[in-house]
Design a protein that fits this description.
single chain, about 525 residues, alpha+beta
């Protein structure tokens, strides 16, 4: 797909998400807040289905896993020991003209001609500036553009009123130089960027009424540390033996420099993390084992393997303590980007907390009479990124032709029934026929304790199907005159079941409906 059609596709997805209640801008009525999103009635069901299935697969269906739910705010000592206070930062650069901030490693390489100026002066007053400044001019651009950006920079940094008229700003000592793949200029206006500075991504606050350094706390930037600091508690209370894992799902916060790509990079998000503790000699093999498990998981929620790119992070690019890291990336319309990281973190985390707390977070193997610090493999996935991947994967605009030969666009979300926010739509053929309505309501009540259902009696059946297609409901059930026995006893208590993807319809008995649906959605 071309870049443009990918951008269009993303726009359509964002618009559908708003229109159908999947995702809203946070605090929208006040203009929103960059990097924060709210999930509407459909979004929250989708996200919940994802988290529930992850929990089922990784905790309930396994003997070697337990769950926990740690607090978001923890003792600051945790983040000192883990290294986050010192090093959880991204390199940041600012545009010298507009002050817009970028993550230094995300500035795209650009080529062109750099215009250097040693300073500027006013042609009508005594004001001068000896600040050096440069602008990148892309090939084919008018040279006056570079000079205009430079004049704007000097005018803006002059004392008030000294150089408000750009025409009076004289640029000093212009010289040029060709550049290839430089990342030192703002891609939007060509203005020079500052040198990179480290920006710590942890949100800060204070616990208690005193805003002192002693009371400083952080909103957790990952859920994992709560697992490490509870290792002993969980070990002592769960009686698990190595290898075993602890799983957790919860909010994490990062003050991202450039939130972007819709919910993909947010400042508040949810993670689904596993710390799988093991003996050192098993670490590498278990990393490959978890890679396979996680790929299978994505397949089971409707994201095919072919759409996931596994990147084996090479030596030198991994965190210094990691002996193996895989990034799992998905083909989003805005580019191939990370969904999950699977890292073999050795004994780095537990050892760091042992050293800082002085507490025994080690493991005693009774059979072998050995005491050691376990190693750990960490599959760490993002709830919001996976939810977005599910929506992107499911979205389709199909051209369909009706019985009269008229074609129209059908917007449909092909969610796996397991993930679909609403599992079944239930319609009486006519809303003014009490027997039809009563029967449809009866089916709703029968199914409601077991799955999310939606009752709809408004408009023509075809319109109601389209509404369910747009939110990805895999099945629709219509109660008609056959159902209530008006066309003979053999068809009584049967309904029309319509399949979202094929749009095929079949007749099914009401008594078999629940069991059949449960099989599809589990
Ligand atoms: P990135 O390189 O994209 O910033 P990361 O490698 O720092 O991500 P991890 O620290 O490995 O991410 O976090 C594990 C997972 O948490 C990611 O794979 C992603 O799914 C999710 N995640 C991390 N940061 C964000 C964010 N800002 N918004 C949404 N999800 C995030």
């Amino acid at each position: 797909m071309s870049k443009d059609s990918n951008a269009q596709r993303m726009e359509k997805i964002v618009s559908l998400c708003k229109r159908r209640g999947f995702v809203f801008q946070s605090s929208e009525i006040y203009g929103g807040l960059n990097g924060f999103w709210d999930y509407g009635p459909m979004g929250v069901e989708l996200k919940r289905n994802l988290k529930d299935f992850w929990w089922r697969r990784n905790v309930r269906e396994r003997d070697d896993m337990v769950g926990m739910d740690g607090s978001i705010i923890m003792n600051r000592a945790v983040w000192k020991a883990s290294g986050h206070e010192e090093t959880f930062s991204d390199p940041m650069v600012d545009c010298l003209l507009t002050k817009v901030r970028f993550r230094a490693d995300q500035v795209p390489p650009q080529s062109g001609t750099i215009f250097y100026f040693s300073g500027a002066k006013s042609s009508i007053s005594s004001w001068t500036s000896d600040k050096a400044f440069s602008v990148l001019l892309k090939k084919g651009d008018n040279v006056e553009r570079a000079r205009k950006v430079a004049r704007q920079f000097y005018a803006q940094s002059s004392p008030e009123g000294a150089a408000t008229d750009l025409a009076t700003v004289e640029l000093l000592n212009e010289r040029t130089e060709d550049a290839t793949d430089t990342t030192k200029f703002n891609p939007e206006n060509g203005a020079q960027l500052t040198e990179p500075r480290d920006f710590n991504l942890m949100f800060k606050s204070h616990a208690g009424p005193l805003e002192s350094e002693d009371n400083k706390v952080y909103l957790r930037p990952e859920t994992a540390q709560a697992i490490f600091v509870n290792f002993r508690n969980v070990l002592d209370t769960s009686r698990k033996k190595l290898p075993f894992g602890i799983a957790q799902v919860g909010k994490a916060f990062r003050n991202e420099i450039n939130p972007r790509n819709y919910t993909f990079r947010s400042r508040e998000f949810e993670q689904m993390e596993i710390e799988y503790f093991c003996r050192a000699e098993d670490g590498l093999a278990l990393t490959d084992y978890w890679l396979e498990q996680r790929l299978k998981f994505y397949e089971d929620i409707g994201i095919p393997r072919a759409k996931i790119h596994v990147v084996d992070i090479p030596d030198g690019d991994r965190a210094f303590y990691s002996k193996k890291t895989y990034d799992l990336e998905y083909e989003f319309p805005f580019g191939i980007s990370e969904l999950e990281g699977i890292a073999y973190r050795t004994d780095y985390d537990l050892s760091a907390h042992i050293a800082a707390s002085g507490k025994p977070l080690d493991y005693f193997d009774q059979e072998k009479n050995e005491k050691f610090v376990p190693h750990v493999v960490e599959p760490s996935a993002g709830v919001d990124r996976t939810t977005l991947a599910l929506i992107c994967e499911a979205f389709e605009e199909e051209t369909v032709t009706d019985d009269n030969g008229k074609s129209e666009i059908r917007t449909v979300l092909h969610f796996h029934p397991r993930m679909a926010p609403v599992k079944v739509g239930i319609f009486p053929l006519l809303k003014n026929k009490p027997e039809l309505v009563a029967k449809a309501r009866e089916i709703v009540e029968q199914l409601r304790p077991h799955m999310m259902v939606q009752y709809d009696e408004v408009g023509a059946i075809g319109r109601r199907y389209r509404r369910q297609d747009e939110i990805g409901t895999p099945f629709c059930v219509t109660v008609d005159f056959d159902t209530i026995g008006e066309n003979g006893p053999e068809k009584a208590d049967t309904v029309t079941l319509r399949h979202r993807d094929s749009m095929q319809q079949e007749r099914m008995s009401i008594s078999g409906l629940k069991a059949w649906l449960l099989e599809q959605v589990n």
